[in-house]
Amino acid sequence: xxxxxxxxxxxxxxxxxxxxxxxxxxxxxxxxxxxxxxxxxxxxxxxxxxxxxxxxxxxxxxxxxxxxxxxxxxxxxxxxxxxxxxxxxxxxxxxxxxxxxxxxxxxxxxxxxxxxxxxxxxxxxxxxxxxxxxxxxxxxxxxxxxxxxxxxxxxxxxxxxxxxxxxxxxxxxxxxxxxxxxxxxxxxxxxxxxxxxxxxxxxxxxxxxxxxxxxxxxxxxxxxxxxxxxxxxxxxxxxxxxxxxxxxxxxxxxxxxxxxxxxxxxxxxxxxxxxxxxxxxxxxxxxxxxxxxxxxxxxxxxxxxxxxxxxxxxxxxxxxxxxxxxxxxxxxxxxxxxxxxxxxxxxxxxxxxxxxxxxxxxxxxxxxxxx
Length: 371
Known about the structure:
Residues 14-335 form the Acyltransferase domain. The chain is mainly α.
């Protein structure tokens, strides 16, 4: 039986937390192979030419595109949207960056601790990775220089600048298109974002056939704006179990040929993810009440894995994944309950300030009108 997406999208009762948790765990699992010096053994890459980590990151961007669009178009305020995004990303990120630089780096640097802390590279690592918009710094002086994957302290952070820039493009583009919609009709916004998504998907597929996998922004735009288009067209999309299983079967059959798989995957992934986010119910949706540990897993896993690899030379990828996950999960739990959840409660602070400012403006206007 099919369900209209718009009926589900208004509810907070969904499987997004579970999907992102599994995606973050897949990133950790996938990274365990290169971090153990066995990058060629990554299981999915040999089968379809992409890693479990790449698939998981695409899942993150599809869900972000959908949920960030909902956040922006529900608020209808650029400043309120920006405040909510800042609270979601930066406080936990800054704590994780300080954890990597001061604790992990302080323990594993081959330099003296005082020299390490004075080194400009340490300061640059903290400032650049806490800001994101100017890219990411991967190395810290003398840290993990002898690991199989040398010098990279937190390689997972490389996707975050792309995500932040896509948030900015969605917000500024959304404001511009909402303005232009007055002149071009009420469907102009939706059609524009759908066009952006389709063009990005086609460009991403074209890059694949040209052997160019370096255009990360096109790839992330394809998945992110596909999620955005699903939100904007929620009134026209049906979540059908028959469509889900037919698409899943097609994806499975396409495994016989890598290029065909990439095409089916690129076109079908958004529908599969949005269906899984809303259609399955029962015990799965109970996970949503436990909290969102995916961000914490994502930003802590890599330095934990590098630390384990440094302390246990020659560790096998699966052992590295299991041990690192056992250490990372409590850090993610602490990040959610100690930082992320607390900061998210502050989102309403801007709304209260905005209401007080509006009341003050009305009072001033009323007094001036009586003068």
